[in-house]
Amino acid sequence: MHTLELYVTHIVENYGYYGLFFLLSLGMIGIPVPDEFLMTFTGFQTALGHLHFGKSILIAAAGSFVGMNLSYWIGRKLGIPFLHKVAPYLHLNEKRIARAEHWFQRFGDRLIVIGYFFPGFRHFTAYFSGMSELPYHRYAALAGLGALLWSVTFITLGRMLGDHWKQITFLLHRYLTRGGIILAILVGIIYVYSVKKGKTSLD
């Protein structure tokens, strides 16, 4: 077990639900927290009777939701002005940026729930949702649903796996990370295509 994982287990063992909430909130804004490891470990703790299963799910979902909301508002408040500032260097004008934002508003929000299950990609969806000014009420509903499903899945998995939770978690993390990278690349390609298509129609 690496130092970071040991630190995470120490926090949960000593601070329980408070530690779980705090760590997941930080993890959702991009701080390097091994989220899946944390969740399955929490599930294992519920199997041992150290934590309550239902309460752990609710706390984990709440922590994830808070972190994803922070990421959304960071993206919304800081992302767009920065994008406009560097736009001339990227050969983007106001209309092309607007077209790209419209693309995410139309299709990208469908990735918010799915994105929870891919390390790294969930941060991408949160920040970009804010940058594209996806309506908050829609984002909050999807982010809340994703947080609940993600928490139920991994905490239940940790509870069911028992003593084998650690080995399975590392294996899952490896493949989910690869999937998240592929998914982010595909979204990036579609995003660039959308911008270039806008360039063709606007020039």
Structure characterization notes:
The chain is mostly helical and 203 residues long. It has one domain (3-202). It has 8 helices and no strands. Helix 1 (3-28) crosses helix 3 and helix 2 (35-48) packs antiparallel against helix 8 (165-202). The longest helix is centred in the last third of the chain and has 38 residues, at 165-202. The mean pLDDT is 75.
End-to-end distance, in Å? 55 Å
Question: How would the global form be characterised?
Answer: elongated
Portion of residues within helices: over 70%
Q: How many separate structural domains?
A: 1
The portion of residues forming beta strands comes to under 5%
Structural class: mainly alpha
Radius of gyration: 19 Å
- Major pleated sheet: none
Instruction: Tell me the number of strands.
Output: 0
Separate helix tally = 8
Order of helices and strands: HHHHHHHH
Q: What does the secondary structure layout of this molecule look like, with pairings?
A:
Elements: H1 3-28, H2 35-48, H3 53-86, H4 94-107, H5 111-115, H6 121-131, H7 136-161, H8 165-202
